[in-house]
């Protein structure tokens, strides 16, 4: 029997990114802002960025920007990006995922899938190969000889 390998590595990577995003948002909620990668991208809470905005010079193009529309904001390059939570694709694409961690997660998912498939095969094969006990076997064997 061949067990199909249908583990979706992209879905596993997305799950890892969402978990990382949840951690970042928790930290951002505590500190107000957080650098999220080595390229100078920052995640701000709405309250934090609105408080900073009050101190920005009038000539700053974001001085009058409406930060109330989203709970979090990505800043660093260009116009700020609204982030609506840990599943927001704009946030997820900014996160670095360790390749070894991803590979390990995929292997664990594949092993779990194989275990479930083998468990299912085991359940169905027991029912299909309902073997007789030794006593039943001997009784059946001896029925033909009694004649």
Task: Explain how this protein is built.
With 147 residues, this protein is an alpha+beta fold. It has a domain at 9-107. It contains five helices and four strands; from the N terminus they run αββαββααα. It has helices spanning 9-31, 46-53, 89-92, 99-128, 134-143; strands at 33-35, 42-45, 72-75, 81-83. The protein has a four-stranded antiparallel β-sheet with strand order 1-2-3-4. β1 (33-35) and β2 (42-45) form a beta hairpin. α1 (9-31) packs across α4. It is rod-shaped and about 105 Å long. The mean pLDDT is 81.
Strand and helix map with partners:
Elements: H1 9-31, E1 33-35, E2 42-45, H2 46-53, E3 72-75, E4 81-83, H3 89-92, H4 99-128, H5 134-143
Antiparallel strand pairs: 1-2, 2-3, 3-4
Helix pairs in contact: 1-4
- Summing up helix and strand content along with how strands pair, one would put the structural category as alpha+beta
How far is it from the N-terminal to the C-terminal residue, by CA?
Answer: 43 Å
State the low-pLDDT regions, or none: none
Mean of all residue-level pLDDT scores: 81
Query: What is the tally of helical segments?
Result: 5
CA gyration radius, whole angstroms: 29 Å
């Amino acid at each position: 029997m061949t067990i199909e390998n249908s583990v979706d590595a992209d879905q596993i990577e997305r799950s890892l990114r969402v978990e990382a995003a949840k951690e970042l948002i928790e930290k951002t909620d505590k500190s107000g802002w957080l650098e999220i990668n080595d390229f100078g991208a920052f995640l701000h809470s709405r309250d934090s960025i609105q408080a900073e905005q009050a101190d920005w010079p009038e000539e700053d193009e974001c001085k009058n920007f409406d930060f109330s529309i989203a709970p979090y904001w990505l800043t660093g390059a260009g116009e700020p990006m609204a982030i609506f939570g840990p599943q927001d694709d704009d946030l997820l694409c900014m996160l670095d995922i360790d390749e070894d961690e991803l590979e390990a997660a995929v292997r664990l998912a594949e092993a779990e899938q194989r275990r479930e498939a083998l468990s299912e095969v085991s359940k169905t094969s027991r029912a299909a190969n309902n073997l007789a006990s030794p006593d039943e076997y001997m009784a059946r064997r001896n029925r033909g000889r009694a004649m």
